[in-house]
Design brief:
The complex is a heterotrimer.
Chain A (H helix, E strand, L loop, with lengths): L1 H22 L2 H27 L7 H15 L7 H24 L6 H21 L1 H4 L5 E2 L4 E3 L2 E3 L2 H24 L1 H11 L1 H6 L4 H27 L1 E2 L6 H14 L5 H20 L3 H16 L4 H16 L1
Antiparallel strand pairs in A: 1-4, 2-3
Chain B lengths: L3 E12 L2 E12 L3 E5 L6 H9 L6 E6 L2 E2 L5 H6 L2 E4 L11 H10 L10 H4 L15 H14 L4 E5 L7 H14 L4 E5 L3 H7 L2 E6 L2 E7 H6 L1 H7 L4
Parallel strand pairs in B: 3-8, 3-9, 6-7, 7-8
Antiparallel strand pairs in B: 1-2, 1-4, 4-5, 9-10
Helix pairs in contact in B: 3-5, 6-7
Chain C lengths: L1 H30 L7 H17 L4 H22 L8 H23 L13 E3 L4 E3 H23 L1 H11 L1 H6 L4 H23 L9 H16 L4 H19 L4 H18 L13
The chains are: A mainly alpha, B alpha/beta, C mainly alpha.
The structure holds adenosine-5'-triphosphate and magnesium ion.
Adenosine-5'-triphosphate (ATP) binds next to strand 2 and helix 1 of chain B.
GO molecular function (chain C): transmembrane transporter activity
GO biological process, one term (chain C): amino acid transport
Organism (chain C): Bradyrhizobium uaiense
C-alpha cells in the first residue's frame, strides 16, 4: 500500500519533470536543474541514513571529492573521453574513500554519535586539505573553467540538454536505489538497524553490509558532485565543507528520511526558500535554517511529507 | 551412528572477579536433545553465549564439528549452523513476521527451502503483521520460528517457554521432540514441567559449575539438586 | 631552546583552553550521552560577553566574570528548551543542537553586527623568561586555566554536588530512588559545563578577533579531546587536551594551520579506532 503510494509519487514526479521545460524559461530551468543535482546528493545520504539509521555528518566530503576529482581529470589535457573518465573517477574516488572509512569505523564497531562526529571531522579535514593544497585545488577560491560534459565528441551544454541529463540520471538512480532497498539487501539492512547483534547471530555480516551501503551512498554522492561541477563550470571548497554536509541533512529530514524521493522534494523546496529569503536579507537564511533544524525535530520528525500522510490518516479515521 | 557435534573442553568465563562458568567439559552428538537447568545466575545464558560467539571463553576451547570456534565472529559461527533463541525476545520490530523469517533464512550458509515454519509455531495467520505489534507470547514463538528457519545443526533455546501457558509449554516440548530428528537441541529452562515433558539428557549448572548430568528422572530424584534449587547449597 | 620553550608555552595555552572547552563535553557527551553540537557557541558567547563588557568601559576582569555567567545562562536555556526533551533521542539531539548553534551564531551577528570584534588583554607586552620572551597575557591565561581546572576538580571530587553528579551518572534510576532530583542535576551539570566553556571563550578573546563562527573551529577538536582521552573523566580530559593541544602546537611550528588541523583530526580518528575507549582506558580495544 505504502509502496504503491511511493511509486505513484515517483511517477507523478517524473511527469512534472518532463512537463516543466514547456512552461519554464531558461533561467528557471537551470535553477531547477541545479536543485535536482543537490537532490541527487540528498538521495545518496538518504540511502545510507534512511536504511541503516546511522547519520553521516560529513557527506559533502564525498560530493566535493567527486567534484574535485572530476575537475582535475577533465582539466588534464590529452585524455581520451575526459568526461567519461572524469565521471568514473568521481564515482570511484569517493567510493574508495568510503570503503576505507567504512572499514575503519564500521568494522571497528563505531556507530551512533561517534560515527556522526567522526564524519563531521572528516568534512572539516577535507575542507582544510582543499584550502591548504591550493596549487592543485585553487585554494579558497577554487577552480574556474571546468569543461562541460562531452560524450562521443558531443558537448552537452545549454539549459535544456543539461536539464534532461540531470533529470534522467536522477530518475534512474532513484529507481535503482529503490529496487535495492526493496530487495533482500534492504530488508537485511532494516534488520541490522533494528538489532545488529541479533542480525549477526542469524548469520549476517553486519559491518560488511553497512560498509557496502556506505560505499554505494558515497559513489552516488560523488557522481552528483562530478555532474555538478561539469555543469556549473566551477569547483570551490564550499562543495566539500561542513555547511553543505549539514544542509543536505536538512533536505533529507524535511523530505522524509528513508523515502528516497522525499529528499529530492526537500532539496528543491529548501533551496527555493533559501533563494527567496536570501534575496530579502542574506543574513536571515542561516537563522531560518537553524530554526528549521529545531522545528523538524519537534514537529515533523518523519519529514514534512509525513504531516500530509498523518492528517490523511486522521481524516480517514474521523470519517470512518 | 551419530558423531560428536559440539565439544567444550575446560571452558571458563570470568567477568572481572566473578566466575560465571568454571571448567566446563561437555559434548553433544548430532540429533539429540539436551536440557540445561539451574537457579538464577547459574551461568546458563553465559553457557549459550560461549557457544554462539557472543562471549569468548577466558580459558578452554569450544569445537563445533571438529573446528575450533573460539573467537570467531558472531555471524561466522551462525553460518556454521548454530541458531539461537534469545532469553529476551529480540525480533526485528520494523519488519513483518514473514520478513523476520526471511531474514533468518537468508543468514544460513546454505539457504533452506521455504518450509512452513510459521505453521509450526502457529503464526501463519499473522505473517503480514509488524513484529512490533505482536504480543509477548507471539514474539516468543517468532523467536523460536526464526531459530528453526535457518535449519541449523545445533539449536540453542534460552527459556523458550517463559510466559507461555501450560498448553503451549507442552506443545513446545512436542515440537522439540519432532525437531530432534533433524538437529541437535540444547534448551535452557526454568519450568520444571517443561523439562519433565522433554524427559531427556539434563545438565544442572550451579554457580558456574557443571553440577550434575544425567537423564531427567535421575536428576529429579537427586537430593543434592533439590538442595541447590532450594538454596540449601 | 628558545623555540622549544615557546612551543611548550603555546602548547600549554592550547591545552588549557581545550581542557576548559572539553569539560562541558565530557559532562554532556561523556556522561549524559547527548551530543551537543552547539557547545562551541558557549565559547563564542563567553568571548562576546567580554567584548560587550569592554564596549561599556568595563574591565577585562569584569568580562571574565560575566562570560561564564552569560554562557551558563545560554546553556541553561538550551537544556531547558531543547535537550531536556531529547535525552532518549540521540539523532534528534544532534540535529536540534546543530540548529541551535546556527541560531546562536546568527543572533550574535544580528545583535552585534558583522565583522570581527576586538578585545583588549588586561596586560600588555612580553615577559622575559631569560631563555625566551613570551606574551604576558598568555602566561596569565595558562595560570587562570590551571586554577579553574583545579577548582573544577575539587568541585567534582569533594563537594556534595559533585557526589550527586557522579551518582546520577552511574545510575539514573538508582539516584532517583535515593531522592536526587536527576532532572535538576542534569540541568545544573550542563549549565556548569557551558559556563566553563564560556570562561575559555573569555580567555581566548584577546588572542583572536571575536566572531560569531569562532566556536565552530573548536567543536571538532573539543569532541576529539573528549573521545581520545576517554569520555567521562577529568583525567581523560586532560590527557586528551594534552595530546591534541601538544600535537597541534608542535605541528604549527612547521606547517600551515589548515594542514595541521587536518592532520590532528586524522591522527585523532586513528586513535579512536585503536583505542575506542580512550587513551586512559585499561580495557583496551574491544574487538
Ligand atoms: N556481561 C556480563 N558482565 C558481567 N557479569 C555478567 C555478564 N553476563 C552475566 N553476568 C553474570 O554472570 C552470572 C551468570 O549469568 P547468566 O546470565 O549466565 O545466568 P543464567 O543462569 O542465565 O540466569 P537466569 O536464569 O537469570 O537467566 C550472573 O551472576 C550474571 O550476573
Ligand atoms: Mg539466562
Amino acid at each position: 500500500m505504502k509502496h504503491r503510494g511511493r511509486l505513484v509519487a515517483l511517477a507523478a514526479g517524473t511527469c512534472v519533470l518532463s512537463i516543466y521545460p514547456a512552461f519554464a524559461d531558461e533561467y528557471h530551468l537551470t535553477v531547477l536543474r541545479d536543485a535536482l543535482l543537490f537532490g541527487l546528493f540528498a538521495v545518496s545520504l538518504d540511502f545510507f541514513w534512511g536504511s541503516t539509521g546511522i547519520l553521516s555528518f560529513g557527506h559533502a566530503t564525498f560530493f566535493g571529492l567527486g567534484g574535485y576529482v572530476m575537475t582535475l581529470v577533465t582539466m588534464t589535457s590529452g585524455l581520451p573521453a575526459p568526461s567519461v573518465l572524469g565521471l568514473f573517477a568521481a564515482v570511484g574516488a569517493p567510493a574508495a574513500l568510503a570503503a576505507i572509512v567504512g572499514y575503519f569505523l564500521l568494522f571497528g564497531g563505531v556507530r551512533g554519535s561517534f560515527f556522526t562526529i567522526v564524519t563531521l571531522a572528516l568534512s572539516v579535514i577535507a575542507q582544510q586539505l582543499v584550502i591548504s593544497w591550493s596549487s592543485v585545488t585553487g585554494g579558497d577560491t577554487g577552480l574556474l573553467g571546468v569543461p562541460p560534459l562531452a560524450l562521443g565528441g558531443y558537448e552537452i551544454s545549454g539549459a535544456m540538454a543539461t536539464y534532461i541529463v540531470v533529470a534522467v540520471t536522477l530518475i534512474v538512480v532513484l529507481l535503482a536505489l529503490r529496487a535495492l532497498e526493496q530487495s533482500r539487501w534492504g530488508k537485511i539492512l532494516i534488520a541490522i538497524g533494528d538489532n545488529e547483534v541479533r542480525a549477526a547471530a542469524l548469520g549476517h555480516n553486519a559491518p560488511a553490509r553497512l560498509t557496502l551501503t556506505f560505499v554505494i551512498s558515497a559513489a552516488v554522492a560523488g557522481f552528483a558532485g562530478g555532474l555538478y561541477v561539469a555543469i556549473a563550470g566551477v569547483v570551490a571548497p564550499d562543495l566539500i565543507g561542513l555547511l553543505l554536509s549539514t544542509e543536505v541533512i536538512v533536505w533529507v529530514a524535511i523530505g522524509g528520511r528513508g523515502t528516497l524521493l522525499g529528499p529530492v522534494v526537500g532539496a528543491v523546496l529548501v533551496q527555493r526558500a533559501q533563494q527567496e529569503i536570501s534575496s530579502m536579507n542574506p543574513s536571515l537564511w542561516p537563522l531560518i535554517l537553524g530554526c528549521t533544524f529545531v522545528i523538524i525535530v519537534f514537529v515533523a520528525p518523519d519529514g514534512v511529507m509525513s504531516i500530509a500522510e498523518r492528517s490523511r490518516m486522521l481524516l480517514r479515521r474521523r470519517s470512518a | 551412528m551419530s558423531e560428536v557435534l559440539l565439544e567444550m573442553k575446560g571452558v571458563s568465563v570470568k567477568f572481572g572477579g566473578l566466575t560465571a562458568l568454571s571448567d566446563i567439559d561437555y559434548s553433544i552428538t548430532s540429533r539429540s536433545l539436551a536440557c540445561i537447568i539451574g537457579p538464577n545466575g547459574a551461568g546458563k545464558s553465559t553457557f549459550l553465549n560461549v557457544l554462539t560467539g557472543t562471549l569468548r571463553p577466558s580459558i578452554g576451547s569450544v569445537a563445533f564439528r571438529g573446528r575450533d570456534i573460539g573467537g570467531l565472529a558472531l555471524h561466522r559461527i551462525s553460518r556454521l549452523g548454530i541458531a539461537r533463541k534469545f532469553q529476551i525476545p529480540s525480533v526485528f520490530p520494523s519488519l513483518s513476521v514473514a520478513e523476520n523469517m526471511d531474514v533468518a533464512r537468508w543468514g544460513a550458509a546454505r539457504e533452506p527451502d521455504e518450509t512452513d515454519v510459521l505453521e509450526m509455531v502457529g503464526l501463519s495467520a499473522r505473517r503480514d503483521v509488524k513484529a512490533a505489534d505482536l504480543s509477548h507470547g507471539e514474539k516468543q514463538w517468532l523467536e523460536i520460528g526464526m531459530a528453526i528457519a535457518a535449519s541449523p545443526k545445533l539449536l540453542l533455546l534460552d527459556e523458550p517457554t517463559a510466559g507461555m501457558t501450560s498448553q503451549e509449554t507442552q506443545a513446545t516440548a512436542a515440537l522439540l521432540h519432532r525437531l530432534k530428528r533433524h538437529t541437535a537441541i540444547i534448551a535452557v529452562e526454568h519450568d520444571i514441567s517443561f523439562v519433565r515433558a522433554l524427559d531427556t539428557d539434563t545438565l544442572v549448572l550451579h554457580q558456574g559449575r557443571l553440577f550434575r548430568r544425567g537423564p531427567f528422572s535421575e536428576i529429579e530424584a537427586d537430593e543434592a539438586v533439590r538442595d541447590v534449587y532450594l538454596g540449601r547449597r | 631552546m628558545e623555540a622549544a620553550v615557546t612551543t611548550l608555552l603555546n602548547a600549554l595555552t592550547l591545552i588549557g583552553i581545550l581542557s576548559l572547552v572539553g569539560l562541558g563535553l565530557t559532562i554532556s557527551f561523556g556522561l549524559m550521552n547527548v551530543t551537543n553540537l552547539a557547545h562551541g557557541e558557549f565559547l563564542t558567547v563567553g568571548a562576546y560577553a567580554v567584548y560587550f563588557t569592554q564596549s561599556f568601559g568595563g574591565s577585562y576582569w569584569l568580562g571574565l566574570v560575566t562570560a561564564p555567567l552569560a554562557a551558563a545562562i545560554v546553556g541553561c536555556a538550551l537544556e531547558w528548551l531543547i535537550l531536556r526533551h531529547l535525552y532518549e533521542k540521540p539523532i534528534a539531539a544532534i540535529l536540534a543542537t546543530w540548529g541551535a548553534s546556527l541560531v546562536i551564531q546568527q543572533s550574535l551577528e544580528l545583535v552585534f553586527g558583522l565583522g570581527g570584534k576586538p578585545v583588549l588583554p588586561p596586560v600588555q607586552g612580553a615577559l622575559d623568561l631569560s631563555v625566551a620572551a613570551y606574551p604576558a597575557y598568555r602566561i596569565l591565561l595558562i595560570c587562570i586555566a590551571a586554577i579553574a581546572l583545579g577548582l573544577v576538580l575539587v568541585l567534582v571530587r569533594r563537594t556534595s554536588f559533585g557526589l550527586d553528579i557522579r551518582t546520577v551518572i552511574q545510575n539514573r534510576t538508582m539516584a532517583e530512588a535515593v531522592g536526587i532530583n536527576t532532572r535538576r542535576v542534569y540541568a545544573i551539570a550542563f549549565a556548569f559545563g557551558a559556563g566553563v566553556a564560556g570562561l575559555a571563550g573569555a580567555l581566548v578573546s584577546p588572542l583572536t578577533t571575536v566572531l560569531p563562527q569562532m566556536g565552530v573551529g573548536y567543536l571538532a577538536n573539543a569532541f576529539f579531546v573528549v573521545i581520545v582521552g576517554g569520555a567521562g573523566s577529568v583525567a581523560g580530559l586532560i590527557a586528551g587536551s594534552t595530546f591534541i593541544g601538544g600535537l597541534t602546537s608542535v605541528l604549527n611550528y612547521q606547517m600551515s594551520p589548515s594542514l595541521v588541523q587536518a592532520i590532528v583530526l586524522l591522527v585523532a580518528i586513528l586513535i579512536v579506532r585503536v583505542r575506542p575507549n580512550g587513551l586512559l582506558s585499561t580495557a583496551g580495544a574491544l574487538r
